[in-house]
Amino acid sequence: MKTILITGIGGLTPRSIARTIRKNHPDYKLIGCDVDKKAMGFFMKNLLDEYYICPRCTSSEYFPWVEKLVREKGIDYAFVQPESEIVEWGDYYERNGKYPCSVFMGSKILSESLRDKSIMAELLKDTDFIPKTIKVTQDNPRYEDVEKNIGFPCWIRATEGTGGLGSLRLDNLDSYKSWLFINSQILEFTVSEFLNGRHLANQMLYYDGEFVKGAALECVEYVMANTAPSHVTGNTHFGRFLNEDRINKFCDNCIKYLEGKLGLPAHGILSFDLKEDKNGNLKVTEVNIRHMAYTGVMAEVGFDLIEDTIKIMEDGNCNNVKRDPFYHYDKPYVFLRDVDVEPIVLESEGIFDKI
User: Fold this and answer.
1) Phi, psi at residue 242, to the nearest 5°?
2) 95-151: pLDDT as tens digits
3) What pTM was estimated for this model as a whole?
4) Can you tell me the distance from the alpha carbon of 293 to that of 9, in angstroms, rounded to the nearest whole number?
5) Cβ-contact 31, 51 below 8 angstroms
6) Which helix (DSSP H) or strand (DSSP E) does residue 19 occupy?
7) Torsion over CA: 86, 288, 81, 329 (sign)
8) Is the separation of the CB atoms in 9 and 41 below 8 Å?
9) SS3 230
10) Could you give the CA distance from residue 344 to residue 336 in angstroms, rounded to a whole number?
11) What is the 3-state secondary structure (H, E, C) of 140-156?
């Protein structure tokens, strides 16, 4: 029996990871932690064996607390999910030459570079990987650059965070000024050209620079879309699993370019958000340094990076993970998700025509 720590257990993705591990390894002990005493994972029946409120990862109390938990509870592995924690664990490794326990994640430099969308945009500047993008702040809104270099309509969102924080299509300078005022608590944004094509996502596993496996999907409709000004939320209501090799190839090319810019190998789980422009060209809008929200539902249809992560942590290498960089689903699966229910996987969207 192994004991696994899952951080940020109040979030959708960590809970999905816990459910998948519980299904595949019912004998494993699962411990969850979160800074919020109201974290959903604390109160879900049969999800965890133990749970704890933890200090914030930026607090001086955080790692002493983690080290004590690892020692007293005999924790073997950890799934560290919040991106702020991943960066801090990377910093811990640089200072100590080891992690508090076995994890599978990239270096601090890679994590910091991808977590901040403005840094990622700067690294990919003047390439075909991203839409035209500039960083703006409340103190330096760069009105002229936005109007002349990006143009309207354009897309604005916060430089950090997921779930479309601050996201909106801007149609003119007045709407831009209004949005900065409304979102005065967010200090930094990226403004980029507006992309009106499909919203795609791709989850990939890298080990010491090797692209081991990857799979893609399309986000078609969003949960509670009408509650967000952009009509895009962090949760997909209806999605399609895709067997389109060009998506995996494009993302891998992007990672190889970033490896060259940063001078280090990609390592860990990397999750892409992409949009197509009016001509169908792929553009990167975000690269997450962790399992994405769809990781559990992807596992249900055969693409299980959660189990692969466990194998890597158990073996200390990637030898027993099947190489499949262009993973193909065996059926044209689609999925439905909502706030208070488990995701539903259907074998094809043809079933909707029968209702």
Assistant:
1) -115, 140
2) 999 999 999 999 999 999 998 878 998 899 899 999 988 889 999 999 999 999 899
3) 0.89
4) 13
5) yes
6) helix 12-24
7) negative
8) yes
9) coil
10) 5
11) CCCHHHHHHHHCCCEEE
